[in-house]
Specification:
The structure holds two protein chains of two kinds. By secondary structure, chain A is mostly helical. Helices cover 72% and strands 4% of the residues of chain A. In chain A, helix 4 runs antiparallel to helix 5 and helix 6 runs antiparallel to helix 7. Chain B folds into two domains: 148 residues, no CATH class; 68 residues. In chain B, strand 1 and strand 2 form a beta hairpin. Chain B is flat. Classes of the chains: A mainly alpha, B mainly alpha. Chain A: InterPro entries: CbiM/NikMN, PDGLE_dom.
């Protein structure tokens, strides 16, 4: 969802533009370090990839579908600096050539969807991969990074909306609505990102920027049967002890999930109409105008709000735990069998 | 960009608007959008005049109305959101057709709808009258960092290739009976995305090597200097100037 012209007041648009320009300037310098003179063609092709992947719709739940934001995916695959550049270029091209997102709102869009998603995603990814090494860590890190990046981006949008939005809607309601919906979208984004990264990792592990430490040592066997171990590119990356390394990751993952759910449900329960707004968004917008102009009244707005809050919270936490657990289990199995082989 | 790579928004033509240098048009559209956003929302007639200005530009550029209207579909999600604001908005309530709506919410909805629509139409007119590659050259003339412009150029150049590759993957999936119905199908889609990334990245490596073999040193040569004359600047900036005059009357 790209912000159009007129959604934020002029001051907010200009300051977000300054933030975006500064961020892009830093990343232009950083990307040269990541890619040197290959920057232009590589980042250009990766930007085209991100643009294409954003067109991939994935089913979320009950007939609705979301599409990938791609910030966390870009950060993990090509590094944070190049990731921000790719996202910024994608948004620029969408604004200028596809009229998607206003020209004056370009700064807001780049800040929210480029810089924030990449920073949040990369931060979480580094945290997780530091706790859990190996391919399992990278996959789980990719899942959590993408999962966190989407609601964080939505919350930053709400913050900007609170500062300089032009619509008189309760900012808490916006935060709750955006956060709630985007946790669900984030789960889809996390799944896709994790499996995508795992796929690339299986075929061309050297292409995954976030897994550079994983490359094996070069082992040379000569005709006499002597083996020489080459330089160690990544340092301590023996496939040993995936089990022990996984425990801190599991604990970290559960903790992160709980914190996330806690923050979101805090927003939700502090203001029941927020979640109802989500329900309207998801439910009644699809059900044609009957509700909008007919029997739907504001009278029962506050009372019913409590139910979806609780249900959504429990379902959300359960889903996150289930998915994270399943993913970690699958990744551990694979890593284990490879170590045995 | 050879034949067959023409952009879907671009409408080839030879009108005065098509012939203007890109940097003039870019600056004009940006200035116009800023003026529109700065207009107070109470000035209904000002927005009407802005729309008339855009219609005049479209007429000069010979862009048919249908072309613009079809491309405006991109706005639909925010239009839906705008319709929601009066319902969930705060503040005093007014009764419209038996519905209790928030008065500030109605103002905000009008504000977003009017400004977003004008911005979208201006962008569509820019994209319809200017070839994408040329727009980027214009952006470079306006001192956008050249690395950023180069990245955007490579992206545009290979966009159709990558999207086409994705489309072929989709055809291959669907011809084998695949349909993305629920969450269980996500891994299949994600594996396609992973394969697409590898193909894109490896294509990037090949492109880079091909360019090195042709003497690429990190910057693209500029073949034709696109300088704009005073007359061209004046005619391009007539649009934001007229909008500014309208704004001056409105204040």
């Amino acid at each position: 969802m790209h912000v159009p012209d007129g959604f934020f007041n002029a001051a907010t648009s200009v300051s977000a533009g300054a933030v975006a320009a500064a961020g892009v300037a830093v990343c232009l310098r950083g990307a040269r370090r990541e890619l040197d003179d290959r920057t232009a063609p590589m980042a250009g092709l990766v930007a085209a990839f991100i643009f294409a992947v954003q067109m991939l719709n994935f089913p979320v739940a009950a007939g609705t579908s979301g599409h990938l934001l791609g910030g966390a995916l870009a950060a993990i695959l090509v590094g944070p600096y190049t990731g921000v550049l790719c996202m910024a270029v994608v948004l620029l091209v969408q604004a200028v050539f596809f009229a998607d997102g206003g020209l004056t709102a370009l700064g807001v869009n780049v800040t929210i969807m480029g810089i924030v998603t990449v920073l949040a995603g990369w931060g979480v990814f580094r945290l997780v991969t530091r706790l859990a090494r190996g391919k399992a860590g990278v996959t789980a890190g990719a899942f959590l990074a993408a999962l966190v990046s989407v609601p964080v981006s939505a919350l930053v949008f709400s913050l900007l909306f609170w500062i300089g939005g032009t619509a008189p809607v309760d900012p808490m309601a916006v935060a709750a609505a955006m956060g709630g919906v985007h946790v669900l979208i984030g789960i889809g984004e996390g799944l896709i990102t994790a499996v995508t990264v795992a796929t690339v990792l299986a075929v061309r592990p050297d292409l995954v920027y976030g897994a550079r430490g994983l490359s094996r040592r070069l082992v040379l066997r000569d005709a006499d049967g002597e083996t020489t171990v080459g330089g160690t590119p990544g340092g301590a990356d023996e496939p040993a002890a995936p089990r022990g390394a996984l425990r801190p990751f599991l604990l970290g993952g559960v903790g992160l999930t709980l914190v996330l759910a806690g923050v979101v449900s805090f927003f939700a329960s502090s203001d029941p109409d927020g979640l109802e707004a989500v329900a309207e968004n998801k439910g009644f917008l699809g059900q044609a105008s009957d509700h909008l102009f007919g029997s739907w009244a504001l009278a029962d707005y506050g009372e019913v709000g409590g139910v979806p809050v609780g249900v959504a919270g429990v379902v959300g936490v359960g889903l996150v735990l289930l998915v994270a657990g399943g993913l970690a289990y699958a990744a551990r199995n694979r890593a284990g069998s490879r170590a045995r082989a | 960009m050879g034949a067959g790579h023409r952009h879907e928004l671009y409408l080839p033509g030879d009108s005065p608007v098509h012939r203007l240098p890109p940097q003039c048009k870019l600056l004009a559209v940006l200035a116009f959008a800023i003026v529109v956003v700065a207009t107070p929302r109470e000035a209904f007639w000002a927005f009407g005049l802005y729309a008339v200005l855009l219609a005049a530009v479209a007429a000069v550029a010979r862009v048919p109305a249908g072309h613009v209207v079809r491309r405006m579909a991109i706005e639909v999600p925010f239009v839906l959101f705008a319709f929601l604001i009066p319902v969930i908005g705060m503040g005093e309530r007014v009764s419209v057709l038996g519905l209790s709506l928030s008065a500030p919410g109605l103002w905000a909805a009008w504000n977003i709808l009017a400004k977003a629509t004008l911005g979208v139409v201006a962008s569509i007119l820019l994209a319809a009258t200017t070839e994408p590659r040329v727009v980027l050259l214009g952006a470079q003339r306006l001192r956008l960092p050249s690395l950023l412009v180069q990245i955007a150029m490579f992206m545009l150049r290979y966009l159709d290739v990558i999207v086409g590759e994705m489309r072929r993957m989709r055809v291959a999936r669907e011809s084998r009976g695949f349909a993305a119905r629920d969450v269980r199908q996500i891994p299949v889609i994600a594996r396609s995305a992973g394969a697409l990334f590898i193909r894109s990245y490896e294509r990037g490596e090949r492109v880079h090597l091909a360019m090195l073999s042709r003497g690429y040193t990190g910057s693209m040569p500029i073949i034709d200097e696109m300088s704009a004359s005073v007359v061209q600047w004046a005619s391009a900036l007539a649009l934001p100037a007229a909008a500014l005059a309208v704004l001056g009357c409105a204040l």
